[in-house]
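In response to reviewer comment 3 from the previous cycle, which asked for concrete evidence that the modeling workflow produces usable outputs, we include below a single protein chain processed end to end. The sequence was submitted unchanged, and the resulting structure tokens are shown without manual editing.
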Amino acid sequence: MNKESSRHHYLPVFYIKNFCNSNGEIFINDKLNDKNYGNISRKVPKKIFFEWDGNTYNINGVDSTIVETLYGYLEDKIAPFLEKLNNLPETESAINKIDVETLRNLIFLGYLTKWRIPSNDEYVKKLDSEISFDDLNIFVKEGDSLFSLNSLVYSEISPEIKRMFFSARLFKDSNSYSNVFKNTFIIYFPQPLFINDNPFIELQIDSEKEYPSFIFPLSSNHLLVHCDFINKYEFIDFFKDEDEKYYRYLNYLYNCVLITIMWHGKKYIGCENREPLSHMLSVVNEVSDKIEEKGVSAPYMAFNALRNFRTFD
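The workflow returned the following structure tokens.
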């Protein structure tokens, strides 16, 4: 019998592969501190974005990987939809060409990623102590009887099970889901996007807003965008006019997105190509300083660029 892997990926391997080159490799910068952008190494998906036994929990004296198994089940359900997107011709990689079920699953992948990453561990533990399964309206039904999960789920894995439910909460609220879905679309970039260890990036201005605008790189070329401050159909129409202004804006937006992704990474930043990663690492501090001088927050450059697409010149 094969030994179960102890590499528990907080970013799924099927997702990481979409940021790899034709050799199945990705170039990774290990940001040891905020100013250390010099080191770049070549990696394969298996060896990045994981924690050793991150989803192994000791329950009654026995090591359990049930959480890892559940994530594997969800990944198997979502992966075909990301593959379907990446198999579309470049000209069809727009929201009006993507079916409802595909977009729905890509949105779920974004929220699943948000709640799964290690940088949210302490926040999840806090929520676990404050929110019960009953509060989430989640029960087990047997016949005509309902049983509380509070007494059925071991305390060791309770926060991890709740992560999955937090990821899916949007889809239980029809009004919130409708608002997110209708304002979500995909942008195709010909240049390679970056990936990091914290890739679901929200514009968190109003702390009371449960589902703010976000960007989420899906692959080297596809960016999932939820913007509730622009009309996505106007934005898509703007992109249909492939003139000089369009290409200048697309390049400007691309660079803004890279800066935002870089600043949002906790430790790792990756790209399928060494050259753009090396270049951005060499200029990011200088560019960010200039951005800050203009009164704009560098970590949110992508959202600022999206907001101003009508007035770009």
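The mean pLDDT is 88. We consider this sufficient to address the reviewer's concern, and the full set will be provided in the supplementary archive.
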